[in-house]
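quick one before i forget lol
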Amino acid sequence: MTVGGHMEAHILKGRLEAEDIPVHLSYESTGPLYGFRLTGLGAVHIMVPDAFERAARHICGTAEGMEAEDEPPADGAA
C-alpha cells in the first residue's frame, strides 16, 4: 500500500504494529527532507510480509481485493 506522506504512514504503521503485524516503510530519502507530499518523492510504501497482507489491508480499509463473502453484510445482519 502507498500513502502520500510520512504522518499517515506512521499512523498506519502504529495501527498495524498494535495488531502484531510487522511493518517496513520504504520511501525516497529526499521526501521527508524537503517535505514533499504531493509528488512521487513524498510517497511512502507500507510493506508487510505476504502472510499478513490480507489482515493489513482489512485493518487499513484497503481491502478492495477481498472477496464479497469476506465483507460484512451492508445491512449489518450477521
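fyi Residues 55 and 71 are 12 Å apart (CA to CA).
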